[in-house]
Amino acid sequence: MVDDSELKRILGEIRTIAVVGCSKDPAKDAHRVPKYLQMHGYRIIPVNPTATEILGEKAYPSLDAVPIPYDAVDIFRPSADV
C-alpha cells in the first residue's frame, strides 16, 4: 500500500496527463476537469476518437495513437466501458 507521503511525491511528479474521453462540451466534467488541470500547469493530451482538437491540444483517437510520453491517464468513461 502506498502511504500519503509516497502518493504526494508521485502526484507531484506528474506533468502530462492523457485524458481518455475528454470532451469539447464545456458543460461536461470531461471538459471542465482537464481545463482546470491546464490552468494549474499540467499538459493534457485529449483522447477522443471524434475530435481533432480539444482545449487547444491535438486530440488522438486512442491511447495507442498518442506519440507523446504521458505520466498519468485520467479516464472519463462509464464504468461499464472500462
TrEMBL record:
Pfam families: CoA_binding_2 (PF13380)
Domain CoA-binding positions: 10-82
Superkingdom of this protein's organism: Archaea
PANTHER family: COA-BINDING DOMAIN-CONTAINING PROTEIN (PTHR33303:SF2), CYTOPLASMIC PROTEIN-RELATED (PTHR33303)
Name of the protein described by the UniProt record: CoA-binding domain-containing protein
